[in-house]
């Protein structure tokens, strides 16, 4: 079975930083792209970042470019999202997901498995 477990969320003041982690199991981790999505109350789940299976390719939502960095450690089956310069608009539940493909993708339907989510709250 495939399992994904997010951690690292919490409450932070505007301008602060958090690092989210997602530990995976049950797949050939290095074969597949990984993604981060977020969902705020009353809004659809939104693409945030993706990284290719080998780690050389990345893609980001325009509003987080320069502030967020996605990375992966294939030896540890873990993907990370470093979030800097946070603002209240970043408040959401953040989810990690495993893609069906090796290349980066922003399409929710291209991701086969999802974690349970971790709450990020940014105060003003």
Q: Which descriptors would you attach to this protein?
A:
50% strand, seven-stranded mixed beta sheet, four-stranded antiparallel beta sheet, 124 residues, mainly beta
Describe the structure.
Helix content is 0%, strand content 50%. It has 124 residues and is mainly β. The strands form two sheets. Strands 2, 4, 5, 6, 9, 10 and 11 form a seven-stranded mixed β-sheet that branches. A four-stranded antiparallel β-sheet has the order 1-3-8-7, with no helix packed on it. The radius of gyration is 13 Å and the shape is globular. The N and C termini lie far apart (41 Å).
Brief characterization of the structure:
By secondary structure, the protein is an all-beta fold.
- Mean pLDDT across all amino acids: 96
Helix content: under 10%
The number of distinct β-strands equals: 11
Query: How many strands, which pairing sense, and closed or not: the largest β-sheet?
Result: 7 strands, mixed
Give the uncertain stretches in residue-range form: none
Order of helices and strands: EEEEEEEEEEE
| C-alpha termini separation | 41 Å
3D shape: globular
Number of helices: 0
């Amino acid at each position: 079975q495939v399992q994904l477990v997010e951690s690292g969320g919490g409450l932070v003041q505007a301008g602060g930083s958090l690092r989210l982690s997602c530990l995976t199991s049950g797949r050939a981790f290095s074969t597949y792209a990984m993604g981060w999505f977020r969902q705020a109350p009353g809004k659809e789940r939104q693409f945030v970042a993706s990284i290719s299976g080998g780690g050389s390719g990345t893609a980001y939502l325009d509003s987080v470019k320069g502030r967020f960095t996605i990375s992966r450690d294939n030896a540890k089956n873990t993907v990370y999202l470093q979030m800097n310069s946070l603002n209240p608009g970043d408040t959401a539940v953040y989810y990690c997901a495993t893609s069906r493909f090796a290349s980066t993708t922003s399409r929710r339907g291209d991701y086969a498995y999802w974690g349970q989510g971790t709450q990020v709250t940014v105060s003003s």
